[in-house]
Specification:
alpha/beta; FAD/NAD(P)-binding domain; 3 domains
Amino acid sequence: MEKATTDVLIIGGGPAGVISAISTRNTYPSKKIMLVRRDAKVAVPCGIPYMFGTLASAEDNLMGDAPLNAKNIELKIGAVTEVDTQQKIAKLESGEEIAFEKLVLATGSKPIIPKPFRGEMKGIFAIYKDFNYLVEMRKQIAQARNVVIIGGGFIGVELADEINKMGDKVVTLTEMTDHILQQSFDMEFCIKAEETLKADGVQLRTGVKVMNLGGTGKVEYVELANGEKIPADAVVLSIGARPTTDLAEKMGLQIAEFGGIKVDEFMRTSNTDIFAVGDCAEKRCFFSRKHVPIMLASTATAEARSAGSNIYSVKSLEMNKGTIGVYSTRVNGLSLGTAGLTESKALAEGFDIVIGISEGIDKHPGTLPGKNKLFVKLLFSRFSGTLLGGQAYGGDSVGELINTIALAIQNKMSMVDLDTIQFGTHPLLTAAPTTYPLIVCASDALKKVYVPA
């Protein structure tokens, strides 16, 4: 079989793989670039929950290949099973071989499935990013009456909200910690999300562990540690994911202590001709440089842009400065966003913090139709004044507001910087200029630092 050749080979067709290819093309227009992925059809990862409610069909959540075609990037469907790092040859399951100069691993992640839930019982699903699997999962859940989702993180919460929209179902969300979304938000935000889900009929079981899934051949109930048995025609496991590093391990690349392919600030692995990006790559906290188990498409694409730009020569302005962790979600009409450290995590890391709070409306005047309450919480270092984190809930403006907060964190803005920020407002689009939330939060924090009690 004839051997294919390329300058840059990318393994993986999710957001990290696609943006690695596009960024490489933009930076090195003369290079030959090939992307290899296992499946012909690829689901948009962040859109997976919306395949079960909001979207009319599963096909509405396909990524599509237009961005690759527009950049003249060769696409090959197949599974890479082995890479000879000395000869720089990737071998596919089909027997094909691809010679390369530079390699990017964007092999993603796979769902965590605890041993007690790994049997052959039907009706149990995990969040695989396999499009055909998701289509079948959607079909079976549509036929179920009682649906139990195990895991109250972002995907679990969004799935509960979306499956509940399918109608004629009893949807129960279980979470072993005291609150849903507890890994990403402080308590007041978690409680607000819980109240919003309950108001739409979703059943919550928090602070209790799932011990067993019961049934004969097919799941019939979920048993909790307190002895409660919840009827279940379908169960969705949404308890996290782990980096897919099997290929990297076979290649002899260094794996980080807590998971993920070890990378430097430029996304290079222990082999400097091989890069790793996205869920498969190690993540280090922007603040502490400790390992953080953050898997987000937005983080993956930021890493991919760095890898694509640096793949032939290091460009220091494109280095990865650490993972901030920027999330947003929408639950039954309530938008929530978080960036950087929460109050609980900041205190656990030993930061001396001061908090600024803003409560208001996202339009002005407050009599305008479609207005939403907007609650914002910012955390600053007490003595340096540097912004460490922020959270918000309200209407859809929260999505871009939390991105602004993340930008301020990345640029190490202080409470004084935010208190004097120049900004634009409009009655239909933002809070009033007299009560703009970032300024109100900064002023509130400054008052607590500089005004005597």
